[in-house]
């Protein structure tokens, strides 16, 4: 039961963050609340990677 509560809290947190970022549905039309935790985590990670400033990596001799 504790695990389910923790998963539900994490899902709720991620959904709130994604909604604030402008997400409403996935590209295939599913609502955020329909997604399992793993998909919410992936969507959030993808968003954070896109939102982060891009750094150019240069090799130093």
UniProtKB/TrEMBL annotation:
InterPro entries tied to this protein: Fur_reg_FbpA
This protein's name: Fur-regulated basic protein FbpA
Species of the source: Cytobacillus firmus DS1
């Amino acid at each position: 039961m504790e695990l389910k509560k923790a998963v539900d809290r994490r899902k709720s947190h991620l959904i709130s963050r994604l909604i604030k970022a402008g997400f409403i549905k996935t590209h295939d039309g599913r609502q955020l609340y329909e997604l399992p935790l793993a998909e919410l985590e992936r969507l959030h990670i993808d968003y954070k990677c896109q939102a982060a400033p891009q750094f150019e990596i240069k090799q130093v001799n």
